[in-house]
Design goal:
Number of domains: 4
Order of helices and strands: HHHEEEEEEEHHEHHEHEEHEHEEE
Number of helices: 10
Number of strands: 15
Strand content: 25-35%
Distance between the termini: 58 Å
Structural class: alpha+beta
Strand order of the largest sheet: 5-7-1-4-3-2-6
């Protein structure tokens, strides 16, 4: 805002206020006394410009953006610790609370899930804890233990929220109001759970049953009255309760909400992550009773997005010295990178389309590839349209 206010312009304005009958040339007493003041004033304007930038959420640096966010009740997501599955041999060895190491990371065993299988938590917060699988070494000797390994990531660790992601949440808060179990409310609360990357909210009434379907019609009422006495006491008591509740429209209160999630690595959510989200939002043992983050009356079902394998077949022309043997990894990496871009956009799209033209382009951009022909996706030479709750994952790339 004050870019035009420079040392030269300030000094010129200051000297203009001095009578011309006095010596104002460079090196004069007047010039020498005004010059340092002009420098200090320029610094002041630079600082003033910085103050104005930091005062607005759109331009504030991270430190001051966090302060603006606090005014809206918004806080940056902190880094979280990865939770993985550990397998230990022999299965009879008790490793609860024991610490293990892979590379630069230490892990601690937290919970037994089956004989020889435990949940293991990385001691270092952040996505780095997701990177290691394989054999672990115990930090201290464990009698009888023969082998320990990490087999899969259950709940991915996440890095601290990036500044631009925090800024977007801050700006979105002015026009997207989360309240009382609306879509925005579910998105904010679910995405804030450690390990969750993206969420789709589906407002349903027990999937395909509408509230009106639960109200008995006249023919149903006649059937109910005409069949009284034809059932045993327990069955009649149950039917009486259901019939009167439906007739009084009590069965139409509340509804069922489906949350479809992917993890923070933009892959399918593990059973452990689904269980954690379900417990946080609407515990199954108290479904609809408001003991989780969901409002009273909302029965929430949490599911993972389904994985759709993408197998690419193509005919490639290579430069001299290149071929499938030395480019296979790069070709798969190029297609996998494209599919990752699609998965990141999954929550904001009604459905994803894996485009043949994009795959051809990504393959052609791999150094050593001259031409791409006859590409197919899952055996079809056309785009692959996924379902609303499906995400694409690379199956393979070959000739």
């Amino acid at each position: 805002m004050y870019e035009h206010v420079t040392y030269e312009s300030l000094l010129e304005r200051m000297l203009a206020r001095v009578p011309d009958k006095l010596d104002k040339r460079e090196g004069s007493v007047i010039w020498d006394t005004h010059s340092p003041a002009a420098i200090e004033l320029q610094i002041l304007y630079i600082e003033l410009d910085a103050v104005l930038r930091e005062a607005y959420g759109d331009t504030a640096s991270r430190e001051f953006l966090i302060l603006r966010c606090k005014e809206r009740g918004i806080f940056p997501f902190q880094a979280t610790q990865a939770v993985l599955k550990g397998r230990f041999v022999p299965a009879s060895t008790d490793v609860s609370g024991k610490r293990f190491n892979i590379g630069d990371m230490n892990y601690i065993v937290t919970e037994k899930t089956a004989d020889g299988e435990y949940q293991v938590q990385c001691e270092t917060a952040g996505s780095a804890g997701n990177q290691y699988l394989g054999a672990m070494l115990p930090v201290e000797y464990i009698k009888g233990l023969q082998r320990a390994e990490l087999t899969e990531v259950l709940i991915p660790g996440e890095d601290e929220e990036e500044t631009e992601a925090l800024r977007k949440r801050y700006l979105d808060s002015f026009h997207e109001h989360a309240f009382g179990g609306n879509v925005r409310d579910y998105l904010e609360k679910t995405n804030a759970i450690p390990g969750v990357g993206r969420t789709k909210v589906t407002r349903t009434w027990n999937s395909d049953i509408s509230p009106a379907d639960m109200i008995p019609t006249e023919s149903v009422e006649r059937w109910y009255e005409n069949t009284k006495g034809a059932r045993d006491v327990e069955a009649q008591r149950w039917l009486d309760s259901v019939f009167h509740a439906a007739k009084e429209k009590k069965l139409t209160v509340g509804g069922c909400v489906r949350l479809t999630v992917i993890d923070s690595e933009f892959g399918a959510a593990s059973a452990a992550l689904i269980k954690a989200v379900q417990t946080a939002i609407d515990p199954e043992e108290n479904a609809g009773e408001g003991y989780g983050l969901a409002p009273v009356g909302h029965v929430v079902k949490v599911e993972s997005a389904a994985v759709r394998p993408v197998n690419v077949k193509t005919s490639l022309t290579f430069e001299d010295g290149f071929g499938w043997n030395n480019l296979q990894g790069r070709l798969e990496e190029a297609v996998a990178s494209y599919l990752l871009e699609l998965r990141k956009a999954w929550a904001d799209s009604p459905y994803l389309t894996v485009r043949l033209s994009q795959i051809d382009t990504r393959l052609l951009n791999v150094p050593g590839v001259v031409d791409v022909q006859h590409t197919s996706i899952n055996g079809e030479q056309g785009n692959l349209v996924l379902g609303e709750y499906e995400i694409p994952v690379l199956g393979g790339v070959g000739a």
